Every structure is written in structure tokens, then in C-alpha cells.
Amino acid sequence: MKCLKCNEKAVLEIKRHKAAFCKTHYIEHIQNQVAKTIKKFKLFPPKAKLILAISGGKDSLALWDILLDLGYNVDGLYIDLGIDDYSTNSRHKSEKFSEKKQSNLYIISLKEIYDIGLNNISKHTSRKFCSLCGMIKRYIMNKTALLGDYYAVVTGHNLDDEATSLLGNLLGWQVGYLKRQEPNMPPSEGLARKVKPLCRLSEREMAGYCVLKNIDYIIEECPMAKGASSITYKEALNHLEAKSPGIKDQFYLGFLRDGQDYFRDGNSEKEEIDLYHCSLCGQPTTSQDKCNFCKQMVRVNLDPLKVNENIKDKLIHKHWLTIIFTYLILFGYC
Ligand SMILES: [Zn+2]
Ligand SMILES: [Zn+2]
Fold this sequence. Notes:
Blueprint: E1 12-14, E2 19-21, H1 23-40, E3 49-54, H2 58-69, E4 73-80, H3 84-101, E5 105-109, H4 110-114, H5 118-123, H6 129-147, E6 152-154, H7 159-171, H8 175-180, E7 184-185, E8 193-195, H9 203-212, H10 229-243, H11 247-264, H12 268-271, E9 276-277, E10 284-285, H13 292-299, H14 305-330
Parallel strand pairs: 3-4, 3-6, 4-5, 6-8
Antiparallel strand pairs: 1-2, 7-8, 9-10
Helix pairs in contact: 1-9, 2-9, 6-14, 7-10, 7-11
């Protein structure tokens, strides 16, 4: 098979586009797709200061690589939840990548803050492990973006993730989520903007990018996610994609283009949600007392505000290191 662009031998085929590319043109194709997504959904302006959620997996590391290559100002944020070997390995891969690219990586570690990991915290709360994990990660990402004055929280959700989540929301008729499932969620008071520049690229395409760019990522999935219904939905969509290449793309991007408005129209009254401020951390919440994060932490006798202090310390520490380093360069010591 020949490369669509240069006629050299192709290394990877993208069935849904009926195209194949050599190494150079494959990398260029993926980077162009991300650049087009940023433009199409107006995700962020060229000079915006961005914080990218890093998991050590293929999507977040590839996205970091792409955004840096495209010239964006993007720092990484790794949240260490203390999930045994999985956290140790994924953290290690993330640190190695940030060293290689000489980019800022902030690490917020639950064990460092509270001396216990998520496995122990979850035993004392009412929420399922994955839902607790997601909630804590979203809370920390949002707080870091607000405290660090970032334009947006960037995540590596790909086309497979978004199509899976759409299928789950449709199967459960989660109308509230269907209205809001967008690659660009604008900010509101106390909540940072959230963007997903990989939403038009598949999992397989991102894995191909990592191989060709020599990006060392953690291959295994989180051990706690085994048996999650999202994995069944993902398998169902993969089955459909194998029979009809392009169906995932059509399902998700077609929904954004032609379907989502049906869930918004005529339902504006139901959309009104009363928001209060958390009595401990000030985060907007639908509860009249504490936000979900503070509620769960208090239940385990942990001080939720320690997370905020830790984020501030990390941001300030990095800020001073940058100033000192800049002065050293200015005065010729480095
Ligand atoms: Zn080529
Ligand atoms: Zn709170």
C-alpha cells in the first residue's frame, strides 16, 4: 500500500478515511487533525496557557507531544491516586516524558497529602470506585486550572471515549449529559473551561502516533476499571466499526452536528439548575451544604482544603523556580 501524499510505502492505514500514510505523513495527518479540531470547535487561542491532564497513557502523552509540536503553551498535570503499581508505573512514564520534552509537569499525590491512596479512601465512602476516582480527578483538575490561571483544562478523550460515553448516555436517556456532551465546555463561575482536542481521532490512530513518535506510554488500563459498563459499550462500538468503518465517527460527530440540538430545544426550563457554593471550599455545587469532593473527604475524616493548599504550593514552587532560572540565564550563569 502506498502513502496517499507521497507515494512512498505506507506504514499505517486509516480505514474510515480509506487512506494510508508513510511515517512522516501519518504524523502530519494526526497533527493536522488536532489543529483542525482546535479551530473547528474554537477550543483555545494560540497564546492560551493550558493545563493538560496526564494519565501516562497513549492519548494524554500523544496530545502533549502534538500540542508542543504545534507551538502551544501547555503544562501537564498528573494526579497520583495511589492505585498500587498502576499509579507508580503511569507516574513514571509521565515524568520521563516531561523530562524528555523539558515541559512542566505538576504532580498532585493523594498519598503525599493524606498518607493514604484511593483504595483506602473508597472503602469508607458510598460511591463506586470509578465514580469517586473521576470526581476527585475533575475536582483537582478544575482547582489547578483556576488557581494557576489557566485558560482551559485539556483532556485526551478520543473519538472512542466520546462515542462510548454518548452510547451510554443514550442507553440511559441521560438528557442532561446529552445536552452538555461537547468538546468545548465553556467556563462558568468557579468552573474552568474543559476541552477535548482528540475527539475526532480514534484510539487506534493515537496508538499508531505513539509508536511512530517513540512515545513510551502505559499500555495496561487501570485495574479498577475492569468490568465497567463503558468497556462493554466500547467493545460493541468496535464490533460495529469493524463491519462498517467510519460508523463511530458518524455516530459521535453526527450527534454534535445534527442530533444534539434536539435535546436542547424546548427543554430550557428543565435545564435551570440551582447552584450554591460549597461551605468549605467555595466550589459551585448543586448541594446546599458541601460539594461532592468535600463531602466524601469529610466522611473519611480528611481535610478537603489540604488539596487546595497542596496545589497552591506546587504552583508557587514552580513559579519561583522559573523566576530563579530566568535570572540565572539573564546573568549568564547557565
Ligand atoms: Zn508520505
Ligand atoms: Zn467543597
